[in-house]
Design brief:
31% of the residues lie in helices and 28% in strands. Strands 1-2-3-4-5-6 form a six-stranded mixed β-sheet. The longest helix has 11 residues.
């Protein structure tokens, strides 16, 4: 399985994983960092952990965010209060 397939499975609500990207169908993780989640009303929410998103983590995580960006329903800044709520 490749990273793009993991993102597709996240969108479909199915499990999938590679060594660095995984999903249980609801949440999406880059390594152990949650970069996406699913909300009943909003759909797929992606956290922008890139240099442009205000909270750069790593190049690999930025690549994962880039793959999911085109399929997410909502993209939030890495420093958004929404992120703080998701981290709980």
């Amino acid at each position: 399985m490749c990273n793009a397939e993991v993102v597709d499975r996240w969108v479909q609500g199915r499990e999938g994983f590679t060594r660095s990207l995984k999903t249980n169908g609801k949440d999406l993780w880059s390594y152990d960092l949650k970069i996406g989640t699913t909300c009943d009303t909003t759909g797929k929410i992606l956290i922008d952990y890139t240099a442009g998103g205000g909270r750069f983590i790593s190049q690999t995580t930025s690549s994962h965010v880039g793959l999911a960006r085109v399929l997410a329903d909502l993209i939030v800044d890495g420093n958004s209060p929404i992120v703080k709520a998701l981290e709980r």
